[in-house]
Design goal:
Layout lengths: L10 H7 L9 H11 L11 H7 L4 H15 L3 H32 L6 E6 L2 E6 L8 E5 L7 E13 L1 H4 L5 E2 L18 E2 L4 E13 L5 H7 L9 H30 L4 H15 L3 H19 L2 E3 L4 H7 L2 E4 L11 E7 L2 H10 L10 H12 L4 H7 L2 E8 L4 E8 L2 E8 L1 H4 L8 H12 L3 E10 L12 E9 L6 H10 L3 E5 L4 H10 L8 E4 H4 L4 H8 L2 E5 L3 H13 L4 E5 L5 H6 L2 E5 L4 H6 L2 E3 L4 H41 L8 H12 L23 H6 L1 H28 L2 H23 L9 H6 L3 H18 L12 H31 L1
Parallel strand pairs: 9-16, 9-19, 16-18, 17-18, 19-20, 20-21
Antiparallel strand pairs: 1-2, 1-3, 3-7, 4-5, 4-6, 4-7, 8-21, 10-15, 11-12, 12-13, 13-14, 14-15
Helix pairs in contact: 3-5, 4-5, 5-10, 8-9, 9-24, 9-25, 10-24, 11-24, 12-14, 17-24, 24-27, 24-28, 25-28, 27-28, 27-31, 28-30, 28-31
Keywords: ATP-binding, Cell membrane, Hydrolase, Membrane, Metal-binding, Nucleotide-binding, Translocase, Transmembrane, Transmembrane helix
Enzyme class: hydrolase
Pfam family, one: Hydrolase
Length: 838
């Protein structure tokens, strides 16, 4: 029998189908069925530590370095080969340990206890492990129980179930074992079924287990998460650049090699040049420093209540163009609250709210708990009322009648107190005036869940509640209130060019009301039902989503499709979720963000977990992500302009048939005293300007747009050119070894001064104080580099083919540095003035 028949088939036929009865299965039959169906668990596949480690080296830049290591090794330069290999290994090790640490943090969040449930076995009630539930079992449930499997109800009394984990519906839904449904009934309307992982908030039930493990609704969702998560924008941009640079580098080296053979160059020296070009061309520090930027960013996010599971996702936040967010628990408190009330008889309204109520402040129906909190706020002593006014009789909440009633003795008289749906109570009311209808409609239009209250004096227990006549004492409207700071966060997101779409299982009126309160839904925006989405093609849906702010009554498939359609149109999508229903969308999103209080399934597939379930935390994290993206852009500029500057110097000298201006080992040393110390300070750069006033950029433009490539080329050409002129001049006035030594130190100092310019996008002298305070660690890094270079120059010059420098030598070096610094400053001022005119 297909699963869609469970709620449209009579219970008797289902019992026959599962070969069971109302007394349940025997223990022997349970064992057989466990062998057949497996344990009532969801399979969990974990990536091995070894695979995580090797994945760190899956990068085109690393491939180039491996080629350089191989050539250097076979040329007999074992020390150089070892140094490059060490850099690659340390980079991989750092990324590996960060991922392992994050995975361990997630494991620590998991609950270690196994849930139990009550079943009938051989006609006797037993408590068994949830994992040993099988299809055909008869399960008994009551208030507070977690539903252990997908169950077709056999009997139910006043049953209400919280299905937020599965449907996103914030208000508990009524269930009724006696009804039979049509086959096309959507999951949120299957009132004769309860599902694995949902919670009984009221009433009692007995039911037949129809699905366990991966066959449950939750299990089916888990099966849909096998689709691979997309690469982060940063990884895509770096790989795209790396592949292009590998191709360019390949042709450059082929050209140099062929030209060298034509020129009759010495083969050994030709290979030395190629190795030098390789070592120069590969910014081997880039993967490491980008990882370091991300680690620092992850630590900063941790202070902002955001746990990063997958390191590259730190940057993805900054590129987000859409945030697809849950309502319950993220935008709203996830706790019902009385928003307003209207009273015909305030005394009896408060009496009914206190006495016709089974909850306490800690346990019970969320609506009834909200009533008690409201009474506390109103200064009503409901505990005293319960002690003074004895309950003589009760009618538990009836899902058909849609109300609850009690008879209490109040000041020597017996009163029937009743609360429930307005539609039900108004049929029994004597005071059916127009005002009540208007008040109800007004509250409902505001998205409030309206509860009606009534009373009447009686002399005995009523025989039929449908025949009594009551007076409506008042109406109370409930809402799941927005969280503090969410409205401000949404406004910041909008200013940053990010569209926030609220996707919820709630009804459309409630969803729109909440969205309006927090500025998500505004004039000109569209609100859709999940069922509407199916009417549109992907292209049509994308055009609609660009104006949509609310999607109500959404299914997991709807949320999944929304993400895929947006991604298909090059949008970067961040998705929040806490329930199992959110898992498919979390998995395929560019950035899946799970709530710390959410389900383990959601946390397992998410790339980030926020411990404070609040949209404001996510928007704050977006700001941090943008700062991180800016810092990555700066470090990419710095590393590539320095690397290309070295290539310009080497290639120009080769084309001019000059001797090699640098040795391969010197290039490695340059990387140590510049990139090795200076680039590691970029992650500490503070916010230079209001990043949330910028519109989102496409990832490739964030890191490698035309301006970035122009800036890199401009700096590289000037750096290479000015040092080439210096080298040519030195060859005329001094020895080759001295010319190499001075050029070697000059190039290093050039890269330091380039670093001073790289830490700010604006001109350095526009705000000198800010230039020195935006990242003071930069100067510490240069200080370390200076100390290392001075040691190399004066303590062991022979090791690095250099010579001790005189004062005149340093003046020449200072001339090249200041000229580079000033030409970059002039370029920045020109760009700044042009932008202001625009």
């Amino acid at each position: 029998m297909d699963d869609h028949r469970f709620y449209s088939t009579p219970v008797k036929d289902l019992l026959d189908f599962f070969n069971t009865g109302l007394n349940g299965l025997s223990d022997e039959e349970v064992k057989r069925r466990i062998e057949k169906y497996g344990l009532n668990e969801l399979e969990e596949k974990k990536e091995s530590s070894l695979l995580i480690f090797f994945r760190q080296f899956n990068n085109p830049l690393v491939y180039i370095l491996i080629v350089a290591i191989t050539i250097t090794f076979f040329m007999g330069d074992y020390i150089d080969a070892g140094i490059i290999a060490g850099i690659v290994f340390v980079n991989g090790l750092l990324g590996f340990f960060q991922e392992i640490k994050a995975r361990s943090s997630i494991e620590a969040l998991k609950k270690l206890t196994e849930t139990k449930t009550r079943v009938l076995r051989d006609g006797k009630e037993k408590t068994v492990s949830v994992s040993h539930i099988v299809p055909g079992d008869i399960v008994i449930l009551e208030e507070g129980d977690v539903v252990p499997a997908d169950i077709r109800l056999i009997d139910s009394v006043g049953l209400m179930v919280d299905e937020a984990i599965l449907t996103g519906e914030s208000i508990p839904v009524e269930k009724d074992a006696s009804i039979l449904l049509k086959e096309e009934t959507p999951i949120y309307n299957r009132k004769n079924m309860i599902f694995k992982g949902t919670i009984v908030v009221r009433g009692k039930a007995k039911g037949l287990v129809v699905a366990t493990g991966r066959r449950t609704e939750i299990g089916k969702i888990a099966e849909r998460i096998k689709e691979k998560s997309p690469e982060t924008p940063l990884n895509r941009a770096l790989k795209r650049f790396s592949m292009k640079w590998m191709i360019i580098l390949f042709f450059i080296l082929i050209f140099i090699f062929v030209l060298g053979l034509i020129q009759g160059r010495d083969l050994y020296k030709l290979f030395m040049l190629i190795i030098s070009e390789l070592v120069s061309a590969v910014p081997e520090g880039l993967p490491l420093v980008v990882t370091f930027v991300l680690v620092i960013g992850a630590l900063a996010l941790a202070k902002r209540k955001t746990l990063v599971k997958y390191l590259p996702s730190v940057e993805t936040l900054g590129s987000a163009t859409f945030i697809v967010s849950d309502k319950t628990g993220t935008i709203t408190e996830g706790k019902l609250k009385v928003e307003e009330y209207t009273a015909e008889d305030e005394e009896f309204l408060f009496l009914t709210a206190s006495l016709c109520n089974d909850a306490t402040l800690e346990k019970g129906d969320p609506l009834e708990i909200a009533l008690l909190r409201w009474l506390d706020e109103m200064g009503i002593d409901w505990i005293d009322m319960r002690e003074r006014y004895t309950r003589l009789w009760e009618q538990p909440f009836d899902t058909k009648l849609r109300f609850m009633a009690t008879v209490n003795e109040i000041d020597g008289k017996k009163y029937l107190l009743i609360k429930g749906a307005f539609e039900s109570l108004i049929e029994l009311a004597e005071n059916r005036d127009e005002k009540l209808f208007k008040e109800h409609d007004r509250m409902a239009e505001k998205g409030l869940r309206v509860l009606a209250f009534g009373y009447t004096e009686v002399d005995r227990k009523p025989e039929s509640l449908t025949d009594i006549k009551i007076k409506i004492s008042g109406l109370v409207g409930f809402i799941d209130p927005p969280k503090e700071g969410v409205k401000e966060a949404v406004e910041i997101a909008k200013r940053a060019g990010i569209r926030v779409i609220m996707v919820t299982g709630d009804n459309l009126k409630t969803a729109k009301a909440v969205a309006e309160k927090v500025s998500i839904f505004g004039k000109g925006d569209i609100a859709l039902l999940g069922s509407d989405i199916k009417k549109y093609s992907d292209d049509e849906l994308y055009q609609i989503l660009k104006r949509t702010s609310v999607i109500a009554r959404a299914t997991p498939e709807d949320k999944y499709r929304i993400v895929k359609v947006l991604q298909k149109n090059k949008e970067i999508v961040a998705v929040t979720g806490d329930g199992v229903n959110d898992v498919p969308a979390l998995k395929v999103a560019d950035l899946g963000i799970a709530m710390g209080s959410g389900t383990e399934a959601a946390k397992d597939v998410a790339k980030m977990i926020i411990t404070d379930n609040n949209l404001a935390v996510i928007v704050d994290a977006v700001k941090q992500g943008r700062i991180i993206a800016h810092n990555i852009r700066k470090v990419i500029y710095y590393l590539l302009s320095c690397s290309f500057g070295e290539i310009m110097l080497l290639t120009s000298a080769f084309l001019l048939k000059l001797p090699l201006p640098l040795y391969p080992l010197q290039i490695l040393w340059i990387n140590v005293v510049t990139e090795g110390v200076q680039d590691k300070t970029f992650p500490f750069s503070r916010e230079e300007k209001d990043v949330m006033s910028e519109k989102p950029k496409k990832p490739e433009k964030t890191f490698f747009d035309k301006k970035q490539l122009f800036d890199i080329s401009f700096t590289a050409f000037f750096m290479g050119g000015v040092n080439l002129i210096l080298f040519i001049y030195l060859l005329e006035v001094t020895t080759y070894e001295r010319a190499v030594g001075i050029t070697f130190t000059s190039l290093i100092a050039n890269q330091w001064f380039n670093g001073f310019q790289a830490i700010r996008e604006e001109p350095f002298f526009k705000n000198i104080i800010k230039s020195f305070t935006v990242n003071p660690y930069m100067y510490l890094g240069v200080g370390i580099g200076v100390a290392l270079q001075l040691s190399a120059t004066y303590l062991f010059p022979q090791w690095l083919h250099t010579v001790p420098l005189t004062l005149n030598d340093w003046l020449l070096i200072l001339l090249t540095c200041t000229s580079l610094f000033l030409i970059i400053e002039i370029k920045k001022w020109v760009e700044y003035m042009m932008e202001r005119k625009i």
